[in-house]
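Journal club side-thread
Mid-discussion, someone asked how the predicted structure for our own chain would compare to the paper's figures. Pasting it here so we can look after the session.
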Amino acid sequence: MYNVEIFIYDQAVGLDIMGPLEVFAAANVIYQQQTKGEPAYRVVLSAHKAGLITLSSGVQIQATRSLGRGAGSDYFMLVGGFDFESLCGDRRLMDRLRRRAARSRRLVSVCTGAFLLAATGLLEGKACTTHWGFSQKLAREYPNINVHPDAIYIQDGDTYSSAGVTAGIDLALALVEQDYGVQLAMEVARSLVLYLRRPGGQSQFSSPLALRQSVGASFSALHNWLLEDISRAVQVEQMADYCCMSPRHFARRFADETGMTPAKYLEKLRLEHARELLESTSQTVESIALRSGFGREERLRRTFLKILGVSPSIYRQHFGVGV
């Protein structure tokens, strides 16, 4: 049996807690049916102080243990929430989390719980992920951490992290598979009506609007010009000419401002337009490829797989409105 301690706090996101908790609970039911023995997992909720904790939804949940009490655990899990920044600034709490983590075999973060783990210093030099909306912030504030913004979950040695909210369920399923094998994990996934392994990365859930923000004021006019007819063929030289710069100077300035080449930006702009059409229209994928500037369906498909990790048809199944 594996002991799991989940650290919770006021304004924590309920699904960050309940998602993994339900995975472990389902694993217990199925495992005990099969073995007639002890549960697969024993889960304890701990907090700075034992008692009722008010989650971001207003629901209250009972922390049965104060942080640091009891024996160490096999998994020590830190979840995300709306108050994670103030918690990271609480040095006394971070010291307590660090000491507790040292008594645990494996460390786990869900969503912005990665910030709590980072603030303890225990993510230094390791790979991790977090919610797509906070990955840049995590990388900026903790430059010695290797942040993977597209990963649904990731393992680096004895440290595990997941992307936002429901990705904690994906990670918990992966832990069940690691601890007890793929068969139990598959049965848990079936019972909870889940993918055992979700297709694609978390880029498919990110907001395309962030692309406009990345160009800032310097190239906002270029951004608008490209969108006027995104289906047309455009070369970097034409983009430079529009900005009244030489191609070399333009490419250097653009990369400095946005962190990507002009060609890569145009590709992502085309991808954004294709995503919008897949979500809101019933046009064929071939037609969308033409309208978004990819030309051929196969080129659109390769770009989707490369950047989002799913095909256009799978993306439409997940996010289309069924028009």
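Post-session note: DSSP finds 15 helices and eleven strands in the chain.
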